[in-house]
Specification:
272 residues, mainly beta, ten-stranded antiparallel beta sheet, 0% helix, receptor, Protein containing TonB-dependent receptor, beta-barrel domain protein, Beta-barrel_TonB_sf, membrane, cell outer membrane
Length: 272
């Protein structure tokens, strides 16, 4: 990972980050020649499985950040930026019984029965490109208005009528302890209210026809569900009010009430 930041002005800077995460794993299963032939697919020589997984995530963003005060009453904290998140996963597997003329307990793909062994290659890629921004305006360090917005272009939306989705939020907070002379018991008190709308893309491949490999027939077959053209991202709208308090310096209290409404949820149930 790497991060860079440059101060253009005392109250204005630009920053960028990049990160690459790679995870590789190898799973093996060895059933020795002494195993029950029921689980070795009839082989008295043994059975071998090898699965290799490779996962990669690349993330990068760039942001322009503002932190400025105007006189003694107003403050502004804002940022605007763009990001990209690319996730890939690959899997390669071999499994099968050791051939009758092979060496017992020699666990290698070259010693498997060619007629009964199976190989699979599987993988997927998802990418989300985003533009986002937020603005927080403060007045006399007692009243704050926060507005955010984000637009995502997700690869899962390919083939659907909506190629991207926007989700905003707005929040208002007030600090009575910075406004009035409250009793000494109230060291700090903040009241807050907010609304947010968050979007989530539906699972990949739902709007794009794909094929699945049948190990039994060794043929590519269409998926068992029909692609859905009129499909939209999941949307959750949340309303919240709450308070944060510190009493007698040491006692902290936080309470919230919220209401969430989710629509356009996508399920893939098993059909009997």
């Amino acid at each position: 990972s790497a991060a860079l930041s440059y101060d253009i002005l005392p109250w204005l800077n630009v920053s960028g980050r990049a990160r690459i995460d790679n995870t590789n794993s190898v799973y093996t299963q060895k059933l020795y020649a002494s195993s029950n032939t029921t689980i070795t697919e009839g082989s008295s020589q043994g059975h071998y499985t090898e699965i290799t997984n490779a996962d990669e995530q690349i993330y990068a963003d760039v942001m322009l950040n503002v932190n400025k005060t105007f006189g003694e009453e107003w403050s502004l904290v804002a940022n605007v930026g763009a990001s990209i998140n690319d996730v890939r996963s690959r899997e390669l597997s071999y499994r099968g019984p050791i051939r009758d003329s092979g060496v017992p307990n020699l666990f290698t793909v070259f010693d498997l029965d060619r007629e009964k062994s199976r190989a699979q290659k599987w993988g997927w890629q998802e990418q989300t490109q985003s533009l986002f921004g937020s603005v927080e305006v403060g007045w006399r360090s007692m009243l704050y208005l926060t507005v955010t917005g984000r637009n995502d272009w997700a690869s899962q939306l390919a083939g659907s009528p909506q190629k991207s989705f926007f989700y905003p939020s707005v929040g208002l907070s007030w600090i009575p302890t910075a406004t009035f002379d409250l009793p000494d018991a109230f060291t700090y008190l903040k009241l807050r209210a907010s609304f947010s709308s968050v979007g989530i893309p539906f699972p990949r491949f739902l709007t794009t026809p794909t094929y699945a490999y049948d190990e039994t027939t060794q043929q590519w077959l269409p998926t068992t569900f029909r692609e859905i053209g009129q499909l939209y991202p999941e949307r959750t709208k949340t309303w919240e009010v709450g308070l944060d308090a510190r009493l007698w310096n040491d006692l902290r209290l936080s309470a919230s009430w919220y209401l969430a409404d989710t629509s356009n949820q996508t399920f893939q149930p098993t059909v009997s």
